[in-house]
Each structure stands twice: as C-alpha cells, then as structure tokens.
Amino acid sequence: MNDPNPLRAAVVGAGSFGTCLAMLMANRGYSVELWARNSSVAEGVNRHHRNPRYLTDYRLPEAVHATTSLEEALSGMDVVLSVVPSHGVRDVWGRAKSWLAPEALVISASKGLEVGSGMLTSQVLREVLPAEAHARLVVLSGPSFAREIAEGRPTVVSVACENESYAVAAQSLLSSERLRCYSNPDVQGVELGGALKNVIAIAVGIAEGMEAGLNARAATITRGLVEITRLGVALGAREETFQGLSGMGDLVLTCTGDLSRNRRVGLELGRGKKLDDILAGLHQVAEGVLTTRSTHELAQAHGVRMPIAEAVYAVLFQGLEPAEAGRMLMTGQLRSERE
To answer: For a designed S-S bond to 184, which of 110, 160, 302, 339 qualifies (C-beta 3.0 to 4.6 A apart)?
Structure first.
C-alpha cells in the first residue's frame, strides 16, 4: 500500500470498537492498518470503505486499509491499538508479537477477564509480549459506545499506564474535539471497572426485563458499584478509580444505554428467554457473560461478598430463575450500607 502519510497506526480487531477507533485515528491524520480475522471484512473495507459486519452504515476514511495479515498490520508501526475480545487476546497476540516494533506504544481497549485465569487483559499481554513492551502498555476504558464515537458524539474516557508519561502520550494521540482522554496510573482499577460493569449491566437488564421498576434499577447500579469497588480493592486497585470514568461512568452508561449488549442479554433473560438463544441472536460478543464466570471465581478466591454478581452467575450458569434471584437479593441478611 502506497502511504503518503508518515503517521501510521495499527488497529488489531475489526469489531465495532476496533472499527470506530480506526475511523478515529484516520480522522486524526493517521493512515491505519486494520487487522481483521475475517477475509470478507477486510475485503469489504478495502473495496467499499465499509465494514460489512459492524457499524455497516458508516463509511470509513480512505486512510483505513484492512488486512488479515498480522505481519502487514503491525510491521513498523509505532502506535498499536488492541481491540480483540478478551477471550482471544492470548491467541492473537501470541501470533502477533513477532511483528510488534520494539518501541511501539500499545493501547489495549479490550474489556473483560480471561476465562480460566481471571486475568486482566494487560496481565495477559504482559505474559505474552516481550519484556521491553511492558512499560509502554496503556489501557483505555470508560463510557464509550462505538456507534456514538463513529457518529462523532462527545465521548470521554480514561487511559491508564503504570508509567503515566505513556498514558499522557496516548492521551495526546487520541484526544480531539470529540474524544477527551484523562490519564490515570491505576491500570488495574481502570481495567476492572470496564470489565466488571458488564456483569452489573446484565443484572440491571434482568430487572428491567421483569419490569421491576426504576427504583430497582437505581439500587442495582448503586450496590453494583459497591461490589465492583470491593473486588477491585481486594485485587490491588485504588478505591477512587471506581468513582471515575472507567468505574461509575462506564457502569451508568452500560446499565442504562439501549446500545448495551450486556443489558440486552439481561433484558431477554428477564423476559424468559434462554441464554443460548439470546447469544445466538446477538451476532456480537457480550463480554459480561464470560466475565460473570471469572468474577464469581475471583470473588470466591479472595473472599469478597458480591451478591448481585453471584445472582447473575446463578441465573447464567446454574439455572436459577430470575424471579428467584431477585427474591434472594431482597430478602438476604440485612446489613449496614457501609458493608
């Protein structure tokens, strides 16, 4: 590909969020290599400047080129955005690491926990990527529906890195009149907020599907944030992070927005549909389903009480009826609000 623009970036993952970030980077003046697992997606982007599977009604800038080759996507790139679903991060980057430039800034935007290990995406990447890449690993999270970014609607997110100078570098690279980034040194907190809020969004959806009312929605969001914070602190995150964009901000968006896939899963469960049928009709990844299992395992391992998350786990994986889950939450042991 002849590239007249010396500013080049790679986006690994051509789902909704990867597609909108490719658009964002192109509009920031970069020529973009968009890695797609599916050859029909890459062909659609290159022939018609549209992703045929995700955000199909948005034309991609001419500066976006798609490829199914990780080598072509990554070779020589100084900025790489990783937007692979959490369950695929280890596999994709196990194959991709050979072509990652030694000085590349890697910005991970995956939201979820690895199945089995319960590891954050940044922890998986630290295991897979060479040691020299670890210091420049940044995570991006916060209230950010892909469609609204593609539409150019104002969006505000967090970018986190243990070496905050690299978070500031990512902040400068990504921020525009329509996307504002705040830097943060708490990588664990920013990632955990983005992952765990999906579990609570399923709970909120279940309650709404059962027509439990607005009072129940507000209570689930509020007590859900308590549970997220409780587990996050037990895992080493900072409590104040969960009051910010990647905690409360993302939680409110995902629990109330009609574009939320995880809320939609909950809605259908609350209306009596079976999980397998819901996921078959979704056509996109609802990270919260697998994250619920990982959350259950982490809470058990660290002795953290998470009644809402446990209720969601029981509905998803143990056959508990949503109405019974709601009854259990309302009739459990009475406690102080500070517990």
So the answer is: 160
